[in-house]
Design goal:
Helix content: 25-40%
CATH topology of the largest domain: Alkaline Phosphatase, subunit A
Distance between the termini: 74 Å
CATH class of the largest domain: Alpha Beta
Oligomer: single chain
Radius of gyration: 24 Å
Shape: globular
CATH architecture of the largest domain: 3-Layer(aba) Sandwich
Strand order of the largest sheet: 1-3-8-7-2-6-4-5
Length: 255
C-alpha cells in the first residue's frame, strides 16, 4: 500500500514537472535577445497614452484622405516606411517639431496590419484611379513599375537607382511641372528605425511642402520599424503610426 502511494506521489510530481517545463523554458527563450523577433514579447500595441490622446487628433484605420475637407485640390500622400508611434512621447514630439506648426496638423492613425503593402493599399483605395505613383528601383524594377502601375494608378514614375533624397527632389519637380491631383510615394530608406535618416527625410519633406503652399500633403508612417533591431522595434507601438497634414483643412472632429 505504501509503495503504491509512493508511486502515485512520484507520478504526480513528474507530471507537474513536465507541465511546467515548457513554460519555464519558453520564458527563458523569449527573454534571450538572440531569439527571433517574432517570439520576443512586446507591450500592448492597442492603446495610446493619455498624453497622446490629449495632444493629437486620433484617427481610425480608413484612409486619411477621407479626413480632408477639400479633396479636389492636389494632394500628395507620402508613406514613411518604419515610422511608428514611440512609447516615449518626447520622441514623437521631436519628429513633429521638424514641421512648421502654422501650416501642419498632427495626428495618430490606427494601422491594422504591420505591412507596408497594407498601408499603401489603404491610402490608395480612395480616388486614386487618376493618380501618379512614384517609385524607385533598378532598370528591371522601374520597367515593371511603369508598365504595370499598382493600386489602379493611371501612371507610375520610377526614379532609377535613386535614394529617398533623390526621389524627393523628383517630387519637387513633378509638383512644379504637372497638374496631377493625386500623387503617392513610399519612402523606404527609413525602414530600420534610424532616427537620423528619419529626421533628414522629414526636414526635406517639410521644405518641399513649404515651397508648394497650394498643395496638400499627408505624411504618415507605414508601421513601426519591424525590420529594425529588437531594442529599436520594441520602443514603438504596434498598432499606431504618426501622421502630418500640411496645407490641409480637416473635417470638423465629431464629438
Amino acid at each position: 500500500m505504501r509503495a503504491r502511494n509512493f508511486n502515485l506521489v512520484l507520478f504526480a510530481v513528474l507530471l507537474a514537472f513536465l507541465i511546467a517545463l515548457p513554460c519555464v523554458c519558453g520564458n527563458m527563450f523569449l527573454s534571450h535577445q538572440d531569439a527571433p523577433w517574432q517570439l520576443l514579447p512586446f507591450n500592448s500595441g492597442d492603446s495610446l497614452s493619455m498624453v497622446y490622446k490629449e495632444r493629437y487628433r486620433v484617427f481610425d484605420a480608413p484612409a486619411l484622405i477621407r479626413q480632408i475637407e477639400d479633396s479636389s485640390r492636389t494632394t500628395v500622400s507620402i508613406m514613411v516606411d518604419g515610422w511608428g508611434v514611440p512609447y516615449d512621447e518626447n520622441m514623437l514630439a521631436d519628429d513633429f517639431g521638424i514641421f512648421e506648426a502654422k501650416t501642419a496638423q498632427f495626428a495618430l492613425h490606427k494601422r491594422l496590419l504591420g505591412h507596408t503593402a497594407h498601408a499603401e493599399a489603404v491610402e490608395t483605395r480612395v480616388g486614386f484611379e487618376n493618380g501618379l505613383l512614384i517609385g524607385r528601383g533598378d532598370s528591371s524594377e522601374c520597367a515593371r513599375q511603369e508598365a504595370f502601375p499598382r493600386f489602379g494608378a493611371k501612371q507610375s514614375f520610377c526614379c532609377l537607382n535613386c535614394t529617398d533624397k533623390a526621389v524627393a527632389g523628383s517630387l519637387d519637380s513633378i509638383l512644379t511641372d504637372t497638374t496631377w491631383k493625386r500623387i503617392e510615394w513610399t519612402a523606404r530608406g527609413t525602414n530600420l528605425g534610424d532616427r537620423d535618416k528619419l529626421h533628414d527625410l522629414l526636414r526635406q519633406l517639410a521644405e518641399i511642402a513649404a515651397q508648394h503652399p497650394d498643395v496638400q500633403f499627408i505624411i504618415q508612417g507605414t508601421h513601426r520599424p519591424i525590420l529594425g533591431a529588437p531594442e529599436v522595434r520594441r520602443k514603438y507601438n504596434a498598432r499606431w503610426v504618426p501622421a502630418v497634414f500640411i496645407n490641409c483643412k480637416l473635417k470638423t472632429e465629431k464629438k
